[in-house]
Amino acid sequence: MKRLLFIAALFVAAPVQGDSTLPPAPYANVQLENLAQEAKAEALMETLRCLQCQGQSIADSDAQIAGDLRNQVRLRIKAGEAPEAIRAWLIERYGDYVSYAPRVTGLTWPLFAAPLALIGLAFVLLRRRFTRSAP
Amino acid sequence: MSAQAPSRWALWLPLALFAVFAALVLFSLLRPADRAVKSAMVGRPLPQFALVAATQTQPGLARADLADGKVHLLNIFASWCVPCAVEAPQLQALRARGIDVVGVAIRDRPEDLRQFLARNGNPFSRIGADDLSAIQFALGSSGVPESFVIDGRGVIRYQHIGDIRADQVDMIAAKIAEAGL
Description:
The complex is a heterodimer of chains A (135) and B (181). By secondary structure, chain A is an all-alpha fold.
């Protein structure tokens, strides 16, 4: 009986609303009329991080804040702004974390330099090995 | 080419490397990660903006209202945001200390907002409506609630991410005093 009551309670439980009831922004889920512009906007949106669901890009995320950012990206592209200018505007506000496109900075340069250094090292080692093994 | 026996320390090197990696993984697993995205706008002037009033009874909010020689606490909130209701008494407490609290309501309806303010109290002198989260992006804010301390010249001096807890009221008041109340 008690168990039945608990199960019945599940059906009357109202979940706490944690989201706005306003409809999505005009361009959150609507493509731009100009296909070339839409392609630019999409390429950019796929490399911008959603601020709430941080493993996703704003192109992938269903969060409302991601929808609002898609709206803003599309409106700016529509107004003729360059994608990299929009990315720079966001980095200015949220730091590098908001962008998935890596930049060479004082902090990240080893990531770019290390492969080059390793290739160089491999080259030196192999050359020594081959020159020595040749009689 | 004669094979040379590796030296003693070289034998232990792979194990040592493994130990370093294991320690790194353990350290990162056990340390609670800070997932908050901080605004890079702290220390910089507020961007230009003008928001229409979010309620019928109070004025909207523009940049000019904040760069008026006094320190303001700009609170980003919404009636649909549960922690915002939890935060309300703390904003009231700050207001009681003579701090001007202004609000930016994110994606809200006037009727919902009216009910929210009736239920939780209204510490705000002005509330602007940001239906597209545009001002939120311009401020480098990534969620609700968030609070910004704005000094008299309209410069953002401090960002508080998440709701202000009861034990953080003094800290926020200190940040406001620091900004020159």
